[in-house]
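Before the break, one more example. Copy the sequence into your notebook; we will annotate it together after we see the structure.
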Amino acid sequence: MSDRTPPHYLVAAARFICDARLSDLGAKATERARRVIADCIPVIAAGMQQREMKAWVAQHLAGAAAGAAWVIGTGKRAGALDAALLNGTAGTWLELDEGNLFAKGHPGIQVVPAAVALAQKTGASGAELLLAVALGYEVSARISRAAQVRLTVHPHGTYGVIGAAIAAGRLKGFDASRMRELINAAATMGMATSRRTLLDGATVRNIFTGHSGYMGLTAARLVECGFTGEVDGVAAVYGKVLSDGFDPDAVVAGLGSEWLIAEGYFKLHPTGRYVHSAIDALEDLLAGVPGGRLDPESIERIEARTYMLAAMLAEKNVVSSFGARFSVPFALASILHHGRSGLKSFDDEAVANPRVQALAQRVDLREDAAYTARYPEEQICDLRIVLKNGAVHEGRCTVMKGEPANPHRPEDLEGKFFDLGVPVWGEAVTRRLYEGCMDLEHIADFRAFADQFVL
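Here is what the structure looks like once it is written out:
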């Protein structure tokens, strides 16, 4: 019979999750947790308007049980499991969701849909929801940081299951023993995801985040029913299955004093995060051009030198809107053509535009090993545009906009909330919802708050 002695790091992590109070987060982490929740909700609503999501929601809810949780952006409600699944999937469709370079992925959109749905079901307070999201985000992000997950694995649908499960366990009042069991059970309920989905523009990839919320809530139910996990499911999966190495001590080092949730980023461009390095370099370049525009027909070639993860996004023959979000050549070409970055620069019409496609073919994207060595602390991209008349324009990104070292202004994040929310809900509802998200700590009953809105 195997030794059932739990590893010290899981004992410490579970105890921390169960004992933490909102005041332990400090002002910066609390503000960031609030912003993560506020960022996810309109991003989900906008993603829910996509053709495929509308079709799936109609089919899925036709056979689903009734429930109290928002299916955000549809005006409908469902049970917590179904809402977490649908909302999590919609949340990554437009590539506008929050993320964290140190966690090597997007913890927020994997934790928030499950936590919000369960808080609506249980009537948890806004403060309890805020803390549950922060803890699920923090511990799962630390597990990802401690693991050397293989580059072939897409990070969605993996450690996010643990994060959603932790948030659920905290909202359900699990003690440290059940929380440890929950972490171990959830660790083995992730997906064998493929990063190739990004490069192929395969939209099945969006289900990965929906899976995290659904399976995180399921893991909590299983533990309530007496199911058990491995003694150390985290090390088994993140040290041997998905990863080439795992440092358990790194999971708890500085836990409670260092908050990874405070080191995340927010997006204003609807693309994969690594594409933002090139977009920021382009914006820097155009700031030095009279009028801030270049005639695409005058461009001979575009040269981009960057770190490995950005250089991987080199597809020039983009065939779908989703694939366009993971192509540096397409992003540069479309923004130059349209004069701005926005949803229309990456929609089906932009993909079908022969001028955009022709300009993308003139992009030379390569890795610079020195830049790869400086990642993730810096996300460097050097951009050089050579015109047909011989003129040269240059731009550079060192730290992407939205990172803690180069943050967006609060009014930019508020603007994003309204830009995405107003087309779906109208100005008045969007305003009330935003104000509620910014004041979560003072909401006594999140279910009663949510019942005011048809989202």
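The chain has a mean pLDDT of 95. The chain has two domains: 8-268+411-450, 275-397. Try to locate both features in your own notes.
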